[in-house]
């Protein structure tokens, strides 16, 4: 997961390969609760691991269920099966509607005293219709903040009061279908001896989610009949019966981003779009009908029992006018697809967007406009006209990576005119879907990067969304930014570069370590580091299985972080780096680190030789005295003894050798910015590099929202 303040997506072009999507949120949280209400143990395969399921699992543990998560994505839940839940308990529901609403109803009918709260936005999301229905039954539920909203208290310390079950329980269905889902999952607790009827008041929205609820209830032994989605009957004698084991399909709403990707991006050479694993056209999730909408816009979608294949068809996409009430979540993806359409797209009957993770109609309108679209919004609709040449006022601001005349084609296709698109920093409102769907704007025909603020908000349902996206997208190498940080030994470049990479979510290449690793591997293979062994060392270097992971340097399966950090290893690295064919062999390996979303490379010749086209080159230096002192402190802290004088003499000798060698001598690139950090803290140096980087970005800094 990217936990950076923002994630800059370079302009992207093509798609290929396949993705395995994480489990459905809606199925996961329903199955967890139903398993908790059943007797015995339910083994849940491919459970979604995300914020929304985390809060559900934690709550179930708190109320006394045994939750065994030792099996990775297979989780075992031992249910209450008639036992009373542990109480009192304070349960934190984050921003998970699928946990907050159904647990409120289930706990009210189980008895005990509970406080349910969530993140501030959860306290703005309505729950009044559900509480009204439960109060109608006789439940005692108090609001702890504003009436109609969480947090709330279920005050059944003395047990569940006598419930009024003879008349139908009436619940409004026009704000959220989750209120009805909550009642449907909880009321079997009260239907042991008599049937229970629920009547929906007003139009029921998001109906396919009720279909999921009914399907899963049936898997747990409860068959609910309904008349036209208005009147639901839970039969007398209902009893939750665990199916023993159950499998969670991949999430259909998460699939929408990749279906859209297949519709928007061209196929990589020799490939046929993108394949999605884990969900097929026969999915029980309503959002699978996003496929119909995507097809209407031009996507070519085929599918089998557990897979979908998507290819670009009509291009530009066809504008649509669609009632999206049945696919409220995936419809947000259509709003971004609309940017690539041949006209104005209208998405209707989406009033519920206003009471979800954020006011999604307002959020989508604001962010789509930032990209250059013309957007009209109403109480329950959004209308999007893509960026067009005629609306263009200015191209990208100075420093933006606008396409140059001779550059390779940058566009996903020729939609409208590229000049209407604007570089935007997308505010994400702590809404996973805003972050995910706007990533698709990186395929814009203007070749502009897109900044996604607070990318970790995807953790609600798809923590590794961006990793999955990068695993199936391609772009021209020169679109992938590289920040080079070169400098002499002990200048702090490794520390600064790693921190810059971490702050930007970029990959990290410690090229100095490559030489150290090569030297170590050579010596381990019994090869002395001299000209006589140059060819053999070079051959070995070409296939060096090196990785930099979480501050560790890995050679094959070996953690060589410490072994390559000794002074001796440094001297060996310097020697090995003077062998020209070893340097050549390592060039390709170093180039292979330039992958989405970007790279920070530290070394001595990153800007001059390896990545001469890097958009930012920094030459980081410090006085010899200062560097000797830092190295001294570093060694002492590791328990090595050393004299500052010797260290200074050593590093001056190394500077001289590095800067006079015939191949790639150490010197600042012509276009490098020199940063002498003798008097700077690490943070100050990092911030300076980030400030320089920021100056090269086309994004206007957005107001905090
Ligand atoms: O029941 C469910 O699993 C859901 C129902 C929908 O909410 P509404 O019924 O509030 O539209 C949907 O937006 C949400 O993401 C999940
Ligand atoms: C509306 C959503 O979530 P919730 O389950 O919290 O309602 C969503 O995931 O888009």
From TrEMBL:
CDD domains referenced in this protein's UniProt entry, alphabetically: CMPK, EPSP_synthase
Cytidylate kinase domain: residues covered: 483-692
Predominant cellular place of this UniProt entry's protein: cytoplasm
Record's keyword annotation contains Translocase: no
Pathway: Metabolic intermediate biosynthesis; chorismate biosynthesis; chorismate from D-erythrose 4-phosphate and phosphoenolpyruvate: step 6/7
Functional note: Catalyzes the transfer of the enolpyruvyl moiety of phosphoenolpyruvate (PEP) to the 5-hydroxyl of shikimate-3-phosphate (S3P) to produce enolpyruvyl shikimate-3-phosphate and inorganic phosphate.
Family under the similarity heading: Belongs to the EPSP synthase family. Belongs to the cytidylate kinase family. Type 1 subfamily.
Protein name (record): Multifunctional fusion protein
Organism: Acidovorax carolinensis
Gene: cmk
């Amino acid at each position: 997961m990217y936990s950076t303040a923002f994630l800059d997506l370079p302009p992207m072009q093509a798609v290929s390969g396949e993705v395995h999507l994480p489990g459905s949120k809606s199925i996961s949280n329903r199955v967890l609760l139903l398993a908790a209400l059943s007797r015995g143990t339910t083994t849940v395969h491919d459970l979604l691991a995300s914020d929304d399921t985390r809060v559900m699992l934690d709550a179930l543990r708190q109320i006394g269920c045994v939750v065994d998560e030792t099996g990775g994505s297979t989780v075992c839940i031992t249910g209450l099966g008639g036992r009373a839940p542990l109480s009192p308990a304070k349960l934190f529901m984050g921003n998970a509607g699928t946990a907050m609403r159904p647990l409120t109803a289930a706990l009210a009918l189980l008895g005990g005293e509970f406080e349910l709260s969530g993140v501030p936005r959860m306290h703005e999301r309505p729950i009044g219709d559900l509480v009204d229905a439960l109060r109608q039954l006789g439940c005692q539920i108090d609001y702890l903040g504003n009436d109609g909203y969480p947090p709330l208290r279920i005050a059944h310390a003395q047990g569940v009061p006598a419930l009024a079950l003879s008349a139908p329980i009436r619940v409004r269905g026009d704000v959220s279908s989750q209120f009805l889902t909550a009642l449907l999952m909880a009321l079997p607790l009260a239907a042991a001896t008599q049937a229970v009827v629920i009547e929906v008041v007003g139009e029921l929205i998001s109906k396919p989610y009720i279909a999921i609820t009914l399907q899963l209830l049936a898997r747990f032994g409860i068959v609910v009949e309904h008349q036209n989605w208005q009147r639901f009957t839970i039969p007398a004698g209902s009893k939750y019966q665990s199916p023993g084991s159950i499998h969670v399909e991949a999430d259909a709403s998460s699939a929408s981003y990749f279906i859209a990707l297949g519709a928007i991006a061209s196929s990589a050479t020799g490939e046929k779009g993108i394949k999605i694993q884990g969900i097929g056209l026969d999915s029980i999730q309503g959002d699978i009908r996003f496929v119909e909408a995507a097809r209407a816009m031009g996507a070519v979608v085929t599918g089998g029992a557990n897979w979908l294949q998507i290819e670009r068809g009509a291009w530009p996409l066809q504008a649509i006018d669609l009632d999206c009430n049945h696919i409220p979540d995936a419809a947000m993806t259509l709003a971004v697809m609309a940017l690539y359409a041949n006209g104005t797209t209208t998405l209707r009957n989406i009033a519920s967007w206003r009471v979800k993770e954020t006011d999604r109609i307002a959020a989508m309108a604001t962010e789509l406009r930032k990209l250059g679209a013309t957007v009209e919004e109403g109480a329950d609709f959004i209308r999007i006209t893509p960026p067009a040449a005629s609306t263009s006022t200015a191209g990208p601001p100075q420093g933006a990576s606008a396409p140059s005349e001779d550059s390779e084609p940058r566009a996903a296709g020729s939609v409208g005119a590229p000049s209407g698109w604007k570089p935007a920093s997308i505010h994400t409102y702590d809404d996973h879907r805003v972050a995910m769907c706007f990533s698709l704007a990186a395929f814009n025909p203007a070749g502009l990067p897109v900044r996604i603020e607070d990318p970790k908000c995807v953790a609600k349902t798809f923590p590794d969304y961006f990793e999955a996206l990068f695993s199936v997208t391609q772009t021209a190498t020169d679109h992938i930014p590289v920040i080079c940080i070169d400098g002499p030994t002990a200048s702090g470049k490794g520390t600064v570069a790693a921190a810059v990479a971490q702050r930007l979510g970029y990959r990290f290449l410690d090229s100095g370590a490559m030489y150290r690793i090569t030297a170590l591997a050579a010596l381990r293979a019994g090869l002395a580091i001299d000209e006589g062994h140059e060819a053999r060392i070079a051959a070995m270097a070409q296939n060096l299985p090196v990785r930099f992971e979480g501050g560790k340097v890995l050679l094959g399966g070996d953690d060589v972080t410490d072994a390559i950090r000794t002074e001796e290893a440094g001297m060996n690295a310097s020697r090995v780096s003077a062998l020209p064919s070893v340097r050549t062999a390592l060039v390709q390996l170093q180039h292979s680190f330039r992958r989405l979303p970007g790279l920070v490379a530290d070394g001595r010749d990153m800007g001059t030789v390896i990545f001469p086209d890097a958009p930012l080159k920094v030459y980081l230096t410090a006085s010899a005295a200062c560097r000797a002192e830092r190295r001294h402190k570093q060694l002492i802290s590791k328990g090595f003894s050393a004299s500052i004088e010797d260290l200074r003499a050593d590093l001056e000798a190394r500077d001289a050798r590095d800067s006079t060698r015939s191949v790639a001598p150490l010197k600042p690139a012509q276009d490098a910015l020199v940063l002498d950090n003798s008097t700077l803290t690490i943070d100050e140096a990092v911030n300076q590099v980030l400030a320089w980087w920021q100056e090269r970005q086309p994004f206007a800094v957005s107001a905090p929202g």
